[in-house]
């Protein structure tokens, strides 16, 4: 028997879910752990939770804004290409998430290293918070416009106060049911708005033939302007991963095609977009068509029913925004500050941040911040897809995500920063034409740079041995007790702790342990060090 085998503690293995972990998962949703197959959702449950992203005034507004800038025809071409791109890429990403059960934060560890990956949940959380500010403000404006009286800050507080408790439960425990109940109301309300507008202002096909008065960006075709505008919402691909990790592998093809793929984006981008273009051309609004003007138009058109439609649409999408903001704040803070708090705390923290941002002159800097984050997201997606296609050194069909098996940083971090930095520079200093190409340029640099890093760069893994995965027959069915938290997690995420006589440790505790990573690196260095030659006669 090898010295490694004799020195390590015996594993405590179970083949049933730990009741304490299951109880915790009802609200935590394995935010810092891999999702075991026993916690995966059924088709309808996951579809209803994700369908929260279908309803938002934003989808109506962005389509109408693009159509007014480039004309209806080019806008629809760009939207069609966006549907194809989002549908195809999310088909790949959702199936990968179903197979691995990993969040964006955990998946990023393999691409950027143990420390380098900390940027991913930060960008993700900040973007989700900013979108929650947008969508929550729409509800507040609707309530203020219809009921009047109190200052808008009061209605901001009302919106945050009711939104935060809605996401205390996890995807399986609550969000699927809430959004399943509200979905018919959104569909009925939006249909009513279209009919109402036609009856009041007359039905006409003129909205299909809107022409741009001048090119939105000189030298950039209208359809390309429309398409790159939708690249600004590639954050949906990060959203996809954090939701699709709950899907069962046998349902992965269905979810890839319907829930997260082409069918979803046909409805979200194209159907919502057509309705937005129609309403913008039919219902008179003051100034440009914006989320605020939509509020005034819908409330003025439908009265209290319009307020209800806006409440349903924005409440549904904000459940996803607040949920993902909380899980990624938890992932970021647990890694950087090594603190573990209940996800409810991070949900409240996200609510506080959303409210404070609402009180500022948020639009003066929020759009720039979202543009910067959008470039980071596009570059991240390019790197993730390149990794899925080209990476060859992962075992068990998984990217390595356990802290004690990864180097501190990888060349992927430099690729990500260089690609995003180039896009930001083009957007900020290159003029309108360069800004239109900033996202595609970042994507190309991310894909090419990461492919080169995989081929030419140093390996990202620490080679240590002592892997608990080698000691069980089924890494997805065996549960191993962690010596730190005393809970059993699936063997997929377990490691041995060199700082504690090689006792088993879960991924969550490993990321928070101040001594674990240093001991893991020392063990790897010792394993790779050349052996001293034996002395003659010894």
TrEMBL record:
Keywords: Membrane, Transmembrane, Transmembrane helix. The chain crosses the membrane at residues 47-69, 75-93, 114-133, 153-175, 182-203, 223-241, 262-281, 293-312, 345-366, 372-391, 412-431. It comes from Streptomyces meridianus. It comes from the Bacteria. This is Thiamine permease. PANTHER family: CYTOSINE PERMEASE, CYTOSINE TRANSPORTER CODB.
């Amino acid at each position: 028997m090898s010295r490694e085998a004799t020195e390590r503690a015996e594993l405590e293995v179970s083949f049933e879910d730990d009741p304490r972990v299951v109880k915790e998962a009802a609200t935590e949703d394995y935010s810092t752990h891999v999702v075991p197959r026993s916690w995966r959702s059924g088709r309808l449950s996951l579809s209803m939770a994700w369908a929260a992203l279908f309803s938002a005034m934003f989808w109506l507004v962005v389509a109408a804004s693009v159509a007014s800038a480039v004309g209806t025809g080019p806008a629809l071409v760009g939207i069609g290409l966006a549907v194809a791109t989002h549908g195809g890429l999310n088909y790949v990403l959702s199936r990968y998430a179903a197979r691995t059960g990993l969040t964006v934060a955990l998946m990023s560890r393999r691409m950027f290293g143990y420390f380098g990956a900390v940027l991913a949940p930060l960008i993700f959380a900040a973007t989700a918070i900013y979108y929650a500010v947008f969508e929550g403000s729409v509800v507040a404006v609707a309530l203020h416009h219809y009921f009047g009286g109190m200052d808008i800050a009061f209605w901001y507080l009302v919106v945050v106060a009711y939104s935060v408790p809605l996401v205390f439960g996890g995807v399986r425990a609550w969000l699927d049911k809430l959004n399943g109940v509200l979905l018919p109301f959104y569909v009925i309300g939006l249909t009513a708005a279209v009919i109402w507008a036609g009856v009041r202002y007359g039905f006409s096909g003129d909205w299909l033939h809107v022409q741009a008065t001048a090119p939105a960006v000189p030298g950039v075709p209208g359809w390309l302007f429309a398409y790159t505008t939708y690249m600004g919402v590639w954050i949906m691909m990060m959203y996809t991963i954090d939701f699709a990790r709950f899907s069962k592998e046998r349902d992965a093809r269905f979810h890839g095609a319907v829930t997260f793929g082409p069918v979803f984006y046909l409805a979200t981008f194209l159907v919502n977009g057509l309705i937005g273009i129609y309403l913008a051309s039919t219902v008179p609004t003051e100034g440009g068509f914006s989320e605020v003007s939509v509020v005034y138009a819908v409330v003025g058109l439908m009265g209290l029913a319009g307020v209800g439609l806006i409440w349903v649409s924005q409440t549904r999408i904000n459940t996803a925004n607040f949920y993902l903001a909380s899980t990624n704040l938890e992932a970021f803070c647990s890694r950087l500050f090594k603190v573990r708090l209940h996800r409810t705390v991070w949900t409240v923290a996200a609510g506080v941040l959303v409210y404070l941002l609402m009180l500022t002159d948020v639009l003066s800097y929020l759009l720039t911040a979202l543009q910067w984050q959008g470039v980071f997201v596009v570059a991240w997606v390019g790197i993730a897809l390149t990794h899925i296609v080209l990476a060859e050194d992962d075992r068990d069909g998984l990217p390595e995500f356990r802290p004690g098996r990864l180097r501190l940083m990888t060349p992927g971090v430099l690729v990500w920063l260089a690609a995003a930095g180039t896009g930001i520079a083009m957007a900020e200093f290159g003029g309108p034409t360069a800004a239109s190409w900033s996202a595609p340029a970042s994507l190309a640099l991310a894909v090419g740079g990461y492919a080169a890093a995989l081929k030419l760069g140093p390996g990202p893994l620490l080679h240590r041995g002592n892997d608990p995965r080698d000691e069980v027959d089924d890494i997805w069915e065996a549960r191993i007790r962690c010596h730190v938290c005393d809970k059993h997690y699936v063997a997929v995420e377990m490691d041995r702790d060199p700082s504690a006589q090689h006792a088993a440790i879960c991924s969550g505790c490993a990321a928070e342990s101040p001594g674990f990573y240093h001991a893991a690196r020392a063990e790897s260095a010792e394993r790779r060090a050349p052996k001293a030659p034996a002395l003659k006669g010894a």
